[in-house]
Amino acid sequence: MAQHREQLPLGFFCRKQIEGKYRNALQLKPEWTDSLTATEGLRRDRQFAFDHRSRHQLKYEFYEDSSGIVELDFEPGNYQSLAHLLADEPATLARKGFIKNILNGLFDATEELHQAGMLHLCFAPSTVFLRKGDDTPLLLCHGSSLLGVKDQRALYQGFETMVAPEVLDGNTKPDERSDVYALGRFIEQLFLNSNLPYEYKAVVKRATDDDPAQRYDSVAAMRKAIDARKTSRKSLLAILAAAVVAGLLVWLFFDLMPETSNVEFIDDNGVVQKEDPYQQVFDDPFVNDQEEYIDPEIALYLDSIGMDEMTDEEFKALSDSVKTATQLEDIFRRRFTQQAEAKLTELYSRQNLGSSETDFISHSGKVFDELMTYAAQLARESGMQEGQASSLASQIISHIQAQKQEELNRLGNQQGGQ
């Protein structure tokens, strides 16, 4: 007798009790048992599963009758689908490390499949299996084994939103970017009843673009982008926490002391400066009004390879290549610094500093999300790697925040001394 039938693209997953023992099986839909293309694809997939050495691969045998393959019998074990687990125990998502283990496991499994020349194509939660008491995701049949099925929409009926458009349409040959799309949809499903965390928002949006050319080129690149955004968020939250404490203290000066209109900056020799010396940190690091800037590291590199012995043509060719290597970062730095300066100046305005701590933290988080989204946009426009852009954006934000804190401290000291 079969218990708990659950629909998958190929058929129904169930647990069957035979002679007092339970076993797990996938009962194929009649349209696939009658399809020579589908059954031949399954035979190839079973052989691949048998040969594929991965802890994420579920192995299976066929149960056949006179009509052919009718059932896939899982290797011994106590299995459940992720969809079933979350339906029965939704609090599992909040368990420490659960989402991390599931996603890292699927990224690992997919990269292993790609190295073997295979694609999975659909990561609907009902197609991802777990052993009871274990967070290691397991995969059964792989989509690339069934690409010979002419009607892919029929194959994935009921799961169309989880599969890349090019797979369903059949007009473009699927590749690794098709799995990037499917993993993006899987992450959306994990957070279906809550808001997507910051580190996944922009990544999922890009991963699930209808145009494959706009997605990440590989699962490794998608994973790297998520990790970079996690690191950036942790760094900035620590900075924001310190900024809140300092900002609230400085607010006391704004609220209790009379406002001064003109602030003069005096150097160590007592000479009044007309401009804020801290603004110099964000002057264009590459060009000034008199001459072209030469990065000290570039100069040391040119010297180490014998710059003086090079011909004018060789020197010009090398200089051009060095400029090309720094050009993308130059463009990104200037444009992002301008945007970050405007956003953080607004954040550290008297009005915001005078708000409650909760409101200030909320506003800070919103500003951070906007800036990192802008950084990802600039990365795509300039051709930079998103991880590199995210790291550089965090550095620029940190520098500007340090500048704003210094300005507030100076102003507070001046008002306190009057």
Polypeptide structure, described:
The chain is 54% helix and 11% strand. By secondary structure, the protein is an alpha+beta fold. The strands form three sheets. The chain has a five-stranded antiparallel β-sheet. Strand 4 and strand 5 form a beta hairpin. It is elongated, with a radius of gyration of 29 Å.
Order of helices and strands: EEEHHEEEHHEEHHHHHEEHHHHH
How many E strands?
Answer: 10
- In terms of DSSP E residues, the strand content is 5-15%
What is the C-alpha radius of gyration, as a whole number of Å?
29 Å
Number of helices: 14
Could you estimate the helical fraction of the residues in percent?
A: 40-55%
Distance between the termini: 87 Å
Decide which structural class fits the backbone.
alpha+beta
| Physical arrangement of strands within the biggest beta sheet | 1-2-3-5-4
- Catalogue the unreliable spans: 241-246, 248-254, 276-310
Global morphology: elongated
The overall pLDDT average reads 80
For the report, how would you describe the main beta sheet? 5 strands, antiparallel
Short description:
This protein is α+β, with helices and mostly antiparallel strands.
